[in-house]
Write a structure and sequence with these properties.
Length: 344
């Protein structure tokens, strides 16, 4: 198949997305597909006489390096110039329409919010993963929590705080402050003391005008992926310092991860069942990864769902798949195969 691997974009997670896209494209090529990774914000950089031709041209080199901090999006926007409007490159729709399917390796607001999926539905372009509705629901942490709570899933108590509020309320301390629709813990803080609350809000407001403030649940952080209707082995995440923030997620040696997690069988089974339940409640498709905390009493709390989880060497979903006997290349191939079934 001819596959465009769409990555990058104009989100705080673009570096992670670029790395995921580069790796996924390589895997798909090794499986015999013609896969080209393209940065959604800048578009295809080469010249071609027809969109189909790009699959026979030399593949442009995609720079993909994850820094210690999220990228400067304003500087990135300025670097593209003022002649192109919007958040996607001018040739993205036409080259994606020329592919048999688009492999979405986007993360955060420009990929997991459902907008690109809705655009592709209108263009009748095939793509991998969750449709627009499930994507939009899952990226909005406030809506996600309300739906999960209504479905019997334990979620931390919390409130939405807006930048324009005359008074910034809190839920007590310790608490977690995070953008309402962000990912990769960008702009997220664990606040232990009241004097650190306003600085945490200011950090989160850099990324979004509405933020989630919720109770901090102490316990073991565990993630569970779902692939093709089945829950993958549980992975436990143990940062060597602090919490599982952007640096601890993507910098080598910052976090210990154990998969399968050393948990009692009943807790493992409960986590996997909860992941499948979350997957259904949020109307997700093909694959996703759910984040949980297991507290000291064994109670399970769901933090959020990731509809386009990372596919970098340090990402959790590939490690969970590997523990289930599914290699990285096979994982990418299965995502394509199962996504194509939506269009049969």
């Amino acid at each position: 198949m001819n596959i465009i691997v769409l990555c990058g974009g104009l989100s705080a997670e673009r570096d992670v997305s670029l790395a995921s896209g580069k790796m996924a494209a390589g895997a798909l090529c090794r499986l015999g597909h013609k896969a080209v990774a393209v940065d959604m914000f800048f578009g295809y950089p080469g010249t071609y006489s027809s969109p189909e031709e790009i699959f026979s041209l030399p593949v442009p080199e995609l720079t993909a390096a994850i820094g210690t901090d999220a990228p400067d999006l304003e500087a990135l926007r300025a670097s593209r110039g003022a002649d192109i409007r919007g958040r996607i490159g001018k040739n993205i729709p036409e080259i994606c329409a020329a592919a048999d399917i688009v492999f979405l390796a986007l993360h955060g607001s420009d990929g997991e919010d459902g907008k690109i999926q809705a655009l592709f539905d209108l263009y009748e372009i095939k793509y991998t993963g969750t449709p627009p509705l499930g994507s939009a629901i899952s990226l909005d942490k406030d809506i996600t929590k309300k739906l999960l709570a209504a479905g019997g899933i334990n979620v931390p108590n919390g409130i939405v705080v807006s930048k324009s509020d005359s008074e910034h309320k809190n839920v007590g301390f310790p608490c977690v402050v995070k953008p309402k629709s962000g990912g990769s813990s960008v702009g997220t803080s664990v606040v232990e003391r009241e004097e650190d609350y306003l600085p945490a809000l200011e950090l989160a407001f850099k990324y979004e005008d509405s933020v989630i403030v919720e109770q901090f649940i102490r316990g073991r952080e565990c993630d569970v992926g779902v692939l093709n209707g089945k829950a993958l082995p549980v992975v436990e995440i143990c940062p060597k310092s602090g919490f599982f923030d952007y640096k601890n997620k993507y910098m080598d040696g910052m976090t210990d991860e154990y998969c399968p997690a050393d948990l009692p069988e009943d807790i493992t089974a409960e986590l996997q069942a909860a992941a499948l339940r979350v997957f259904d409640i949020l109307r997700l498709g093909v694959y996703a990864r759910m984040d949980f905390i297991v507290d000291s009493t064994g109670k399970i709390w769901c933090l959020e769902a990731n509809t386009l989880p990372g596919l970098t060497p340090s990402s959790l979903l590939p490690k969970e798949a590997a523990a289930a006997g599914i290699g990285y290349d096979e994982l990418c191939g299965l995502i394509v195969e199962r996504s194509m079934e939506k269009y049969l």
